Amino acid sequence: MSTTTTPTKPRRALPPLMQLTDAAAERLRSLYAGGEAGKLLRIAVSTKGCSGMSYEMNWVDAATPQDEVVTSQGLTVLVDRKASLFLIGTTMDYKVDKLTAGFTFENPNEKGRCGCGESFHI
Q1: Which among 78, 82, 112 has a CA at the least distance from the CA of 92?
Q2: CA 57, 15, 47, 111 torsion: positive or negative?
Q3: CA 91/CA 55 separation, integer angstroms
Q4: What are phi and psi of 12, to 5 degrees?
Q5: Which residue in 17, 26, 95, 100 has the most C-beta neighbors within 10 A?
Q6: Enclosing H/E stretch for 31
Q7: Rounded CA separation 91/109 (Å)
Q8: β partners of residue 80
Q9: Contact 122, 111 (CB under 8 A)
C-alpha cells in the first residue's frame, strides 16, 4: 500500500506581535530604571472613543497568564492576549512635539482613526 503526500504551501511567517523603535526603547529604559523600576508596561486595547477602540497602557508588577510577553530591543513589554490579534505587526514609538510627548502606535491593522487621534477602528 503506497501513501501519497500532498505538497503543502510553506506557511508565511507572521510579523512580530510588537516592536519598539529606538526612541520608544530609550524612553521605556529610562522609565524602567526610574519611577517604574521593577514593573512592566502592559498594553491592551479597550472599546472606547469615537472610532470604537483605544490603546491602553498600565504598569503591572508581573505578567499574568493572560499576557503575551514581547521582547524588543532587549526590553520586555506585555500585551493583553485579547488584544494580540489587533496588534500584530504594530510598532510602538515615542514622539516629542512642541506641546506633547508620548508613546504612539503604528498599527498596520488600523482602518481609520477619529479626528482627535485617540481611538481607531479595525
Answers
A1: 78
A2: positive
A3: 13
A4: -75, 135
A5: 17
A6: helix 22-33
A7: 11
A8: 67
A9: yes
Grid cell at residue 55:
490603546
Cα separation, 79 vs 100, in Å, equals: 25
Look up residue 118 and give its three cell numbers: 485617540
Q: Which residue type is seen at 44?
A: A
Taking the complete model, does pTM exceed 0.85, yes or no? no
Distance between alpha carbon 86 and the CA centroid of its chain, in Å? 9
Per-residue pLDDT band for 110 (boundaries 50, 70, 90) equals confident
Domain 18-117 class, CATH top level: mainly beta
Summarize pLDDT for 16-74 with one digit per residue, the tens. Answer: 889 999 999 999 999 999 988 899 999 998 887 665 778 899 999 999 999 999 999 99
| Bridge partner list, 93 | 104
Contacts of 119 (CB under 8 A, 6+ apart): 48, 49, 50, 51, 52, 53, 54, 113
Burial of 43 (0-12, 13-18, 19+ CB in 10 A): buried
Residue with the larger pLDDT of the pair 99 and 14: 99
